[in-house]
Design brief:
There is one protein chain. The N terminus is likely disordered. The strands form seven sheets. The protein has a six-stranded mixed β-sheet, with no helix packed on it. By secondary structure, it is mostly beta strands. It is 0% helix and 47% strand. The chain contains no helices and 31 strands. The chain has one domain: 7 Propeller (Methylamine Dehydrogenase, Chain H). The chain is globular. A hairpin with a 7-residue loop joins strand 26 and strand 27.
Length: 346
């Protein structure tokens, strides 16, 4: 029997690691001060494809179009911008819904989330807050109001800190893009980094030693050790996923992989434009939906430039999350869980 627990987040006192980012259209012009992008390298040939995917299980979930997945111990959380909900999924051969939590109005709720023990951290646009949510029940634990620093856009975790990207309003003078460093234990804002640019769609990603931000500002590197010093890179790149020491960003024709510490370009891969979602596994490889016209499925892009296609009757892939054990995809109507260890990915 599947038990669905429905809960509502209540206002509290005061006031996810597999990575997946939804790429939206930029609603602003990039500043003209960024460094030029290196020439595009020639892509290598595709490595092949297979239909021999190892499906652990699947379950029907109607979460709409704008969805993110964050892996947590024992399963995953799926956010629905369309419905204004968070859905807790249990892993295993019979993946199932265990909790359904409403956190805001439909089309006005979760912009970003990341798991950093012991909480699921959520940027909620309906209240312009950073929420700490219990990763088992979905119960609201704590809240940090973001209004003093702008509008919250995204959250990441690295170097024992939460990094929250906040955007200013169009037309404001001066640098109005900010990245907050937040202590997860106290929700105290430890520091802020101001960046040039204005507008929405500011994305931050992080690991233990490096923080990258881009979108409404040129792609920039922030060192947790030397903050507030930053190094700015391209104006036309948005950070999408960071894992295994590799940063994946958008490029005009596909994806670019950078060394997450030095910013050195590892790979430029020509695709049919940037993919709608990207997830990086612990080896730094990118998992992306198959390009339009290539059929339903998910592709593995290695750092050599080789692309391997795992085809299945999954429909359109709208969200992806991965770790060293499992691959989760959302198709618009179902969550499908794969056994990565038996998919011949090496």
């Amino acid at each position: 029997m599947v038990v669905v627990v429905i809960a509502v987040l209540l206002a509290g006192a005061g006031g996810g690691v597999g990575l997946a980012w939804l790429v939206g259209a930029t609603r602003h012009a990039s500043p003209a001060t960024a460094t030029s992008r290196p020439p595009l390298s020639s892509p290598t040939a595709d490595a092949g494809s297979t239909t021999n995917t190892r499906v652990i299980g699947s379950v029907a979930v109607a979460a709409g179009d704008q969805v993110k997945i964050v892996l947590v111990p024992g399963g995953a959380w799926l956010s629905s911008w369309t419905n204004g909900t968070l859905t807790r999924m249990a892993a295993g051969r019979g993946p199932r819904v265990t909790s359904l939590v409403r956190i805001g109005q439909p089309s006005e709720s979760v912009l970003s989330m990341v798991y950093a023990a012991p909480s699921l951290w959520v940027v909620d646009s309906s209240t312009n807050s950073l929420l700490a949510v219990d990763p088992r029940s979905g119960r609201l634990q704590r809240r940090l109001r973001l209004a003093p620093w702008g509008g919250g856009d995204s959250v990441a975790f690295g170097a024992h800190s939460l990094w929250v990207a906040c955007t200013g309003q169009l037309g404001n003078s001066g640098p109005v893009e900010r990245v907050l460093r937040v202590d997860p234990a106290t929700l105290q804002v430890l520091s802020t980094t101001a960046l040039p640019g204005e507008g929405e769609d500011l994305t931050v990603v992080a690991n233990a030693t490096d923080v990258w931000v881009g979108g409404a500002t040129p792609l920039a590197h922030i060192s947790p050790r030397t903050r507030p010093a930053t190094t700015r890179y391209f104006a036309d790149a948005r950070p999408l996923a960071l894992n295994g020491g590799t940063l994946w960003t958008t490029s005009p024709v596909g994806l670019t992989a950078l060394d997450a510490h030095t910013g050195r370009v590892i790979l430029n891969r020509n695709l049919q434009g940037p993919p709608p979602v990207v997830a990086a596994d612990p080896k730094g490889r990118a998992w992306i939906p198959s390009s339009p016209g290539d059929g339903a499925g998910v592709d593995l892009l290695r750092l050599t430039g080789n692309l391997f296609r795992f085809a299945q009757d999954a429909g359109r892939v709208g969200a992806v999350a991965v770790d060293d054990v499992s691959l989760w995809i959302y198709t618009g109507s179902r969550i499908i869980l794969f056994d990565v260890g038996n998919m011949n990915t090496d």
